[in-house]
Amino acid sequence: MSESSNLHATRGSALALTLMLVVFAVGCHKKAPAPPPPPPPPPPTTTAPPAAAPVINSFTAEPATIERGQSATLRWSISNATDMSIDQGIGAVQSQGERQVFPNASSTYTLSVRGPGGMDSRSVTVSVTTPPPPPPAAPPSTPKLSSTDLLNQQAQDAYFDFDKSDIRADANEALMKDATLLKQIFAQDPSFSVVVEGHCDERGSAEYNLALGDRRATAARDLLVQLGVPADRLKTISYGKERPQCTEATEECWQKNRRAHLSPGQ
Amino acid sequence: MKRILLFSSLALTAAVFVWAQQISKEITKTGEKPVIAVPDFRGSGDAQNIIGVFNDTLYRELDTSGQVRIAPRTSYPLQVPQQPSDFRPPLNGQSQGPWLSDWSGPPVNANYLAFGYAAAQNGQFVVLGWLDDVRQANPSSAQLLGKTYLGTLDEAGARKAAEDYACDIVKQFNGTCLVGTKIYFVSDRTGHKEIWSMNYDGSEQKQFTHYGSITTFPTVSPDGTKIAFTTYPLLASSRALPQFGKQTENLGQPQIYVHSLETGRKLVYYNQHASMNAASDFMPDSRHLLIYSTAGGGYSQIYETDLDGGDLKRITHSGALDVEPKVNPKTGREIVFVSGRGGTPQIYRMNIDGTDVARLTDGEGDAGNPAWNPDGQHIAFVWTRGFEPGNYNIFIMDVASRNYEQLTHGAGRNENPSWAPDGVHLVFASKRGRTTQIYTMLADGTHVQQLTTQGNNEKPVWSKAAQ
What we know:
In chain A, 30% of the residues lie in helices and 27% in strands. By secondary structure, chain A is α+β, with helices and mostly antiparallel strands. Chain A is rod-shaped. Mean pLDDT of chain A is 86; it is low at 1-5. The N and C termini of chain B lie far apart (66 Å). Residues 240-245 of chain B have low confidence and may be disordered. In chain B, strands 1, 2, 3, 4, 5 and 6 form a 6-stranded mixed beta sheet that branches. The radius of gyration of chain B is 26 Å and the shape is globular. By secondary structure, chain B is an alpha+beta fold. The A-B interface holds A 162-163, 202-208, 210-212, 214-215, 217-219, 222, 235-238, 242-243, 249, 266 and B 193, 214, 216-217, 230, 232, 235, 237, 247, 250-254, 275-276, 278, 292, 294, 298-300, 321-324, 338, 340, 343-345, 366, 368-369, 382, 389-390, 392, 415, 459.
C-alpha cells in the first residue's frame, strides 16, 4: 500500500476511532465517565542532517619528475572545506587552483583541508633529478686538409722516356698510388676534380711536344680510369714544353720534365 | 786497294757536297745573278745632309736582296752620270763625258747601272733614279727604269726613298720586293708569350695579341688578311687572382683563335671538342685551315676545316702523333707534315686526301718545322742530323728528288724557318746565347741578320705586304 494510502488509512482509523468514542459518550449518559483519550502522538520533528566531511577531489603534480631547474605544476580540487592550505611555503589556497613550483630537490607537497565535517590531507611528491654532467670539452681539432692540399702533397708524378708516352713500371707504381688517393679524395669531396697535365723536356720541337705531352696526359688518365677513378672527374691538358719545372740542360732535369702531373681542376 | 777506296770516298763526298750545294744555288741563282753598279748619289742643298743615309740604305737593300751582285766600288770610273742627258758618246775614241761602256767594260764589268741625284724641293726629299742596261748601244734603248722618289726631308724619308728605289730595281730581276712585307712572331717580352709583328727589316715591332697566357704557333693566310694561332685561354678563376705567379695561373686546353689582320679583331672559330687543337697552315684559297687535333681520340691527327672551324675533314689515320701540316702553296694538292709513326719525329709528304704517304727525311735524329718555298718545289725544315737531340739546324730540300742541303751548322738551336715572299730569303729563330732571337738570311746561308733583341722571340712567319 502506498504511503499516502497508509496515511489515509491511519487518518481513517483515527477518525473512526474518534467517531466511536463520540457515539459511545452520547449513547451512555448514565454510565461511568469514559477515560480521557490518549494524548495525540507528538508531531515528527525535522533535524538538520549531520555536516559532510571535507573532500579532496584531486591533488596532482605534473610532471611528477623533473630535472633540476625545471618546474612542475600542482593542481587541486577540494570540496566541503573552509581551511585549505599546502605546505612547503605555499600557504592558504582556494578550493580549485594550480601553482607552479620550482623545487631544487625532490619535495613532497601536502594539501591539508578542514571543515565542519572534519579534516583531510593528501600529498604529492615532485622528484627532481640532476641532469647528466656535460661531456668533457672536446680536444682542439686538427684542421682537416683540403682536397687541393691533399692532392698537392701526396700525388706522385709519372715519368716517361724521351720521345715516348709508354707507361714505365715506375710510372705504373706512381699511378696506382695516385688512383687510391684520388678515389679517397673524390669520395670525400663530391665537387672536386683533377687535371692530368702532360709535359715534355725542352729538346724536341714545341709543336711535336704539344702532341706528345697530350699523349702522356691521356695515357696516364686512361690508366687511372682503368684503376677505378671516375672518368668524369678527370680532365687532361698538354703543356708541351711550355711549363718546365726546371731549366738546366741535364739528363736529370730533362727526366723531371718528361712527366704526367696531377693538379686541382677548376 | 785502300788508296782507291779512300780516293773514291773522297770523290764521292766532294760530289755529294757539290750536289747538295746545287739546291741553294737553284733557289738563290748564285751563278747567274746580274751585276749592278751602284755609285753614290749626290744631293744638292738640304738633301746633302741625308744623302749618306740614302746611299747606305740603297746599297744594303740591293746587297741583301739576293737578286743582284753589286760591282765593287773601287772599280768605278771617275765620271759618274747623274741623269741620262749626262751621257756623251765618245768621239774618235776620245771620251766626251760619261758613257755606257764605262760601266759594261773592264774593270767594272757590270750589266746594269743605277744612277741619279737628290735635291730638296718644297720641303721634301726628292730623288730622281734610273736603271740602265749598260750593255745596250745608246742611253734611250738602255733605260729600264726612270722614276721620282719622295720622302720627308729627314733620315726616315731618305731611308724610305732608298727602299722604294731599291724595290723597283729588284722587281726588274725577280718581281718580288720585300719592302712592306711583315713578319709575325711570338715574343715573351711582356712576361707572357704573345703574337707580335714587325717589318721585314725588324723595324716597328708591335704587340698584336694581349691574351696574357700562352699564345703561339702563328700562321698567316696567303692573301695576308687573316692570322691563326694557338692559345691556352685564361680560365675565369685565375683572372680573379692576379697575385699568383705564372705557374699557378689556371689555363684551359689549347685552342685555335683566328683574327683579322685588317681590323685586328677576333673572328669566330669553333674548336673541336678535344684536349688539343692547334692551327698549322691556311690553304691557298685563304678560306680553309689545316690543323692538328685530338678530336678523333687519343693521338694528334691532321684535319682540314672551314674558316670558322666547320666542315671538319680528317686527313691522317695513323695511330701515332701527326703534327705541323703545310700545304704546297702552288698546287694546293700535297701536304708535308711531321709524324712520329716511325718512332721519332720525321718529315713526311702525302696527297691532300691523305693518300700516298712517303717519308722525306731518312729517319736519323729528329726532324720538324717544314715550310714550303713559294715555288712549291722546295721546303725548309729543321733536323738534328749529326747532333745530339735538341740541336736543330736548318735544312732545305728539293721535295721531288729528296736532295737536301744544310744551311746552319751547329751555331745554337735553329728553328721554325719561314720563306720570304721572294722565295730567296728565310726568317728563323735561333738560340745563340742565353736568349732566342729572330734572324733572316739568304737561302744559301749567307747574309745572316739579327732582327730582335728584347726577351725571347721565336716562331716567325713571313707574310706578303699589307694590302
